[in-house]
Amino acid sequence: MHHTCHSPRRPSVLHIFKIYYPDLFGGTLTVIRDICASLKDAFASAVLVCSQSAEQREIVVDDVPVERVRSFGDVLSLPAAPTYPWRLWQKIADHDLLALHAPFPLADLVFAFGLGRRRPMVVHWHADIVTHAGLRWFIEPLMRRTLRQAKAIIVSDRVLVDKTPLLREFEDKCHVVPFGIDTDVYDWPKIEPHHVNDRGRLVLACGRLVPYKGFDVLIRAAVNRAFEVWIIGEGVERTRLEQLIGELGLGERVRLLGSVSDCERIKLMCLADVFVMPSVTNAETFGLVQLEAMAAGRRVVNTALDTAVPRVARHGMEALTVPPGDAEALGEAIDTLISDPGRRRRMGLSARTRAVSRYSTATFKDGMESVYRAALAASRDQPADDHQKETGWFDSIGIAAILAWSDMRHRYVRSLLGPFWMSLQMAIVVAVLGSVIGQMSNGDMLARLPMLALSMTAWTFLNSVVLDATTALQNSASLIRDRALPPVIFLLQCTFRQGLFALHNACVPLALWLLLTPHNLSGALAALPGLSLFVVCTFALSLVLGALATRYRDLKPIIESTLMLAFLASPVIWSADMVNHRSTVMRLNPLTHLFAVWREPLTGGHVGATSITYVLVMLALLLGASVLTLGHLRKAAFWI
């Protein structure tokens, strides 16, 4: 009798970040790679990133499956990958644990809307938002919601918690796991002092060529000095750095080596006399590459940042630490080590000893595995009633749809025509308005009726959704307080309910289109994207205004009056050729452009670039405001 022994299934971990090998080389990417490699016996890892490469979407890097979502470039250091949130949402259910490498606002946007709540998440905090600090007002609320959802937050050094206000809010979730490095690959026995390069002139630096790395400071430090500088790495700053080298006349002593293989990088580490990390901002939180230099027995010159950088290689022991951005001080520190070979050897030995004893791969592996397993265990041990209390977005949408359908059925019980009374009412309104407009213009009145009916249907939908939202939370006070249902359900209910009514109203423009216009489906298909934008903007507007009207009751009459004025100042009941296009009010009115993005394709025209830009900017602002509103809606029970 044969017994088959099945090994237990390894929990799967999805690593979430903006980019990965082979598109770029960097510290965060090395950390992800090392986590996947060190935990391969305990966890099955996968990576989801963005990529500008036109090559295959799914690849394997070091036996780890990597899916690359298409990106069209970078905007403010964030990949322009519009489908990434959708793909992330799809993959969440396929994995047991989510590992988000922060900062990555594109992923925060997904978690801010409550997606992924049913999967435990660990956040690896690599850095704070420094480069584009002006965007913190928008990004920080997203990150806060992500950290609130996370089971654990991993940092490389305690100083990151002490110096980062956002992390201090979640101090109880933070776990310090120092990065580790495989010191064996640096072949220490072969680079004992008698093998070390005795020229005493080679200075090495390594990293992405981006502003915060401070390589321009290192280049300036080489002016009027005798040492040579080799810089490993690629990035957006390469052209500027090459120009600076040329302007300073350093072409013979400063070299940009570009990207090199791991083997070549290790070789250069072992040959260098001094390793320099000239970073100038707190975006450099640890400096994994200086740990590699320490493992190779290199003495280090680093900068006095408020991060772990000067704590990994300590001043006077493994490194000389200088003020960030000070080229003169940096050059003097390098010259100090260049002129003292004995000190270089002593500091190199101290650096190697610290790398082996404190930053070993075994310590790193044990720390990561412990946090990952604890996050999984905490999720499994969560009481069943706690899971039931969590209402994700899908649950909210389903509940809102059921409530909206119930409203429809109860509103028209024992009614002969049911909701088609609305269709009849819309037909009467269109007929009356059409006759009035026909008297005001010289055009064919019948030809205008389908677009008039469709415009009135769209306006009625927008107006009703927003006005419903201003009282939705007060009308559902008992369900919010007693049943603890998320307030967003009742704002969604307004959109669904008015959407059902709009479908009945749509019978009028549909009938008129079939009777009075040529049947051209291409225009209808071209209008769908614009119509989708119209619906999304309507819901976002209702979400924001509904919350504000609940918090501040005197806003409701102001909203009603504003909607009336917006209707009168918008080309809803008349065509564009009846409107003076030079009118400032019309051009600045958001509804003019919101209607244009779907009406123009229906009439065979093209949507103007101004309207597209206007609507996209409005959509971005409304989505940002919606995210902020969702964060405050948890207080709705106190407002009502």
TrEMBL record:
Keywords: Membrane, Transferase, Transmembrane, Transmembrane helix. It is found in: Membrane. Its main location: membrane. It is a multi-pass membrane protein. One of its GO terms (molecular function) is ABC-type transporter activity. Residues 26-180 form the Glycosyltransferase subfamily 4-like N-terminal domain. SUPFAM superfamilies: UDP-Glycosyltransferase/glycogen phosphorylase. Residues 192-353 form the Glycosyl transferase family domain. Pfam families: ABC2_membrane (PF01061), Glyco_trans_4_4 (PF13579), Glycos_transf_1 (PF00534). GO terms for cellular component: membrane. The chain crosses the membrane at residues 416-437, 449-467, 521-546, 558-576, 612-633. InterPro entries: ABC2_TM, Glyco_trans_1, Glyco_trans_4-like_N. This is Glycosyl transferase.
